[in-house]
Amino acid sequence: MSSLTRRRFLTTTTGAGLAGILATGIPPALGQQREISYLCWNNFAPLMDKKLAEIGQRFTKDTGIKLRIDHIAAAQQAAKYASEVQSQAGHDLVEMRMHFPWLYEGQLIDLGDLVADLEKKYGKVLSSAAETARVQGTWRAVPQYHAMFVATYREDLFKKASLKIPDTWEDLYTVGKELKKMGNPVGIPISQNYDSISTAGPVLWSFGGLEVDKDGKTVRINSPQTALMVEWYKKMFRDCMEPEVLSWDDASNNQAIQQGKAGWIHNPVSAYIVAKQMKLPTADTINHHRTPGGPAGRHETDVPRHIGIWKFSKNAEPAKEFIRYLLGKRETYDEFIMSADAFNLPVYDKLQDHPVLKTDPKYAGLRAEGVQYHCYGWPAPPSDKVQLITNSFIMPNMIAKAVTGTSTKDALAWAENEMKKVMAG
Amino acid sequence: MAIGSVGVATASRSSSLRTRVGELLDREQWLGPIFVSPALVLLLLLVAYPFCMALYFSVSNAFIGRPSHFIGIRNFVNLWQSDAFRQTFQNAFVFCGAAVGAKLVLGISLALLLDQQLWFKRLIRGAVLLPWVIPTALSTLGWWWMFNSLYSVVNWTGLTLGLMDPPGPNWLGQKYYAMTAVVVVNIWRGLPFFVITILAGLVAIPRELYEAAEADGAGSFARFWHVTLPLLKPVLAIVVLFSTIFTFSDFNIVFVLTHGGPINSTHLFATLARQVGLETGRIGEGAAISLYLFPVLMLVVWAQLRFVRKQAY
């Protein structure tokens, strides 16, 4: 028997090992680093990002799975996600705003098992979050929290002029006239931004109108109910607001109330939280009340945010483990929610009376009994066509046309025509 | 000895290889392509490939992450039905015409001024470049504050000097004002490119021509009209060509200042393409918006380059 030299042994074993790795495409276990990456937005509540990083470090310590968290501005999310999907490479976990799971349906794994576990613990997912995260019956993302719009007003001005908290949009017109006379107009944007849609939606729904029917195909914007809503906007613009609302961006209404100009705005609670954090003089004077209603009930815009896992991820299991770690343990989830100071709230039914709402008496308005929450385009399912109607700002532009001189009839006909073209495209 | 002969053979093989490579590099037909090839590879990867992809997307029903199919020119036809797109088309020409025209006139004037003997000439020339070197998104944010309805320093100044009636123009909320605002920012941003390039052209004009014109009794306007302008024509053609392309494809200024509003009155092709292609996922339609003007711009480029060549020879 010939003796085996050291050189021959090394050559043979290295060759065989490499051949095995190349054939299977799987590196040896020793060399595998369990590492996942999460791409999420720059939270409007920055302390929540800090808390997420902290929880991520604990997750790595407890599970041995390395977690890299990258942040991106909300405005850049769509472009970044599109490039990850087109190149089939990028992060494992992605934060998904509102309807995103519908846009990327075919690219996201089914997370129904995780949602079922969370619903067992915390109760049913709120309807607005379920409508956007569950696509054609499959949970394409796990709902994590939501931020809803709420009526935000200057309590001191209301007291000074003995104004009644508006219970309906018509009541808001009555108090709005007084506020404008006092030099503190109502601040509802009518421009190409998402806050404009976030207010126009609830007003439209409360008057009984809708953009597209439940079937997701039939355009319903040209209706007597929408005409009522447009007429309401016209008189609000004329008697309760300043023309500057035509140029506002998403931050303008916040700034208007924080700087002491606006007397009433419709916005998430961030206007107050920022004023409080920056110790602005107006912080003490701002309060919230339940969203006004109309003949067809009380509706509000909701912005649920979910977490999804790309299908191209090679780390689906560790990624799921992170979602379980972040949302599945009550104490961790509570800690996460508390860090946002009521800007982001739990999306599960049994957690609606969350302790974060008791941290400040001004959060009482966020409990919002009897308010129905929806996302843009409701009641139509959030298909890409419905999203194009939203992203093209057809509704705010219809209102802008009407308040700047176009007749209500022509503005409605224009919007109907534009929406029909999107639907036909 | 065997080892010695192997060494000699290897040395002679490598020396003959070196000679062959040397001979190859001496031939122009080989050396030229070798030098050009890295740039060519970069161009193919970073320009040609994305452009071809965009061309394909524009004639398909591509949607992010879904299989796409060829649909011919349907995207281009459908776009023309959209009010927002037709408005964008009109905006692009108004924006580009106004901005490039103003930059040309102001650029020539400022370049003529900077060509004079001025105190702190170098400092002023450096300062003129500032808008060009500051990142556009950042400088536009500054302009956004100046036009902002709540904090507008423009309105504050106008009101204080009694030049405006309260509350002053709603710069970003009314369509003509909004278009004026985006054009003004584009002029501010693009002017240095005109000034510096035209200045380089001015410096290259021989002084003797001016002296001869002066000797013939030409005044300053006649010298400008009959000497400066004809000799600047090739430079102006190139500057206008580049600026037309940059201005048509502008994105940052409109995106930061108005987001295309009010009522789509400031949307440009790039901002609308982003809205449709990226925010909604309809990449096919988004690519079609981006490429709508491609044939027109190609014609402009062809005509201007032809003009430049005629001027040069």
Chain pair with largest interface: A-B, 40 and 37 residues
CATH architecture group name of the largest domain in chain A: 3-Layer(aba) Sandwich
CATH superfamily of the largest domain in chain B: MetI-like
Number of strands of chain B: 0
- Total domain units of chain B: 2
Coarse shape of chain A: globular
For the record, what CATH class of the largest domain in chain B applies? Mainly Alpha
Uncertain stretches of chain A: none
Number of strands of chain A: 12
Please state the oligomeric state of the protein chains shown: heterodimer
CATH domain class of the largest domain in chain A: Alpha Beta
Cα-based radius of gyration of chain A, to the nearest Å: 25 Å
For the report, how would you describe the main beta sheet of chain B? Answer: none
Write a structural description.
The complex is a heterodimer of chains A (425) and B (313). With 425 residues, chain A is α/β, with parallel strands linked by helices. Chain A has 2 domains: 173 residues, 3-Layer(aba) Sandwich (D-Maltodextrin-Binding Protein, domain 2); 174 residues, Periplasmic binding protein-like II (D-Maltodextrin-Binding Protein, domain 2, 3-Layer(aba) Sandwich). Chain A has 17 helices and 12 strands. In chain A, the strands form 3 sheets. In chain A, strands 1, 2, 3, 6, 11 and 12 form a 6-stranded mixed β-sheet that branches. In chain A, strands 8-9-7-10 form a 4-stranded mixed β-sheet. A two-stranded antiparallel ribbon of chain A has the order 4-5. In chain A, helix 2 links the parallel strand 1 and strand 2. Chain A is globular, with a radius of gyration of 25 Å. Chain B is mainly alpha-helical and 313 residues long. Chain B folds into 2 domains: 58 residues, no CATH class; 231 residues, Orthogonal Bundle (MetI-like fold). The longest helix of chain B has 32 residues. The mean pLDDT of chain B is 89.
